[in-house]
Amino acid sequence: MYKYYPEKRYRLTLEFLRKHIGKEEQILDLGVPNPFSEIMRQEGFEVQNTGGEDLDLDLSTIRHSDAPVVTAFEILEHLVAPFNLLRELPANKLLASVPLRLWFAAAYRSETDPWDRHFHEFEAWQFDWLLEKAGWEIKDRIQWAHPVKKIGVRPILRYFTPRYYLIYAERTP
Predict the structure, then answer these.
(1) Neighbours of 50 (CB within 10 A)
(2) How far is C-alpha 130 from the geometric centre of its chain's CA atoms?
(3) Separation of alpha carbons 139 and 171, rounded Å
(4) How confident is the model at residue 1 (pLDDT cuts 50, 70, 90)?
(5) 127 CB burial (10 A radius; 0-12, 13-18, 19+)
(6) Disulfide: which of 93, 111, 158, 168 matches 20 by Cβ 3.0-4.6 Å?
(7) pTM, full prediction
C-alpha cells in the first residue's frame, strides 16, 4: 500500500486517538483494512472496517453500524460528496484527517488507480465548515507538516507548511 511507512502521520494520529477514545469504545473505520487500522487493533482498539464500497453511493455499512466512534483517516478527500456521508454517520464521535490543500502543489491524482485520487484537498476552514454543516462540533484539532527527503523548492516548503489536518468532533445535539 505504501512505498514507505508514514511514521510521523501514524504516530501523531495514534497519540490523538489515545487522547480522545477509550479502548472500550467500538470503532467503525471508514475504508478497507489498512496498515493503520491494524495498528489500532494491535493497540487494543476494537475496529471494524467498511468493505470497499463506494461511500458516495452506498452508505449501508454506515447505516447498520452501532459503533459509537467513526474514524476517517485520509478517506474523505476521495469522496465527491463527503457531506452526505458525514450527515449519515450514526456515531456520536468522529476522528478524521485530511490532506490540506498546498498552494504550491496540485491535488493528488494516481494515473493508474481511479480509487487513489483526491476530489478534495481542503483548507482547514473548509473542512471545519463541512463538519459544522454536517452536524459535528470540533473539540480538538492538530495540523502538521510532512517533509520529504528530496531537493528543491517544494520539498523545502513541505518542511514548514502544514500538510495534514486531524480533528476530533462530537455530534451536535
Answers:
(1) 21
(2) 14
(3) 10
(4) very low
(5) buried
(6) 168
(7) 0.85
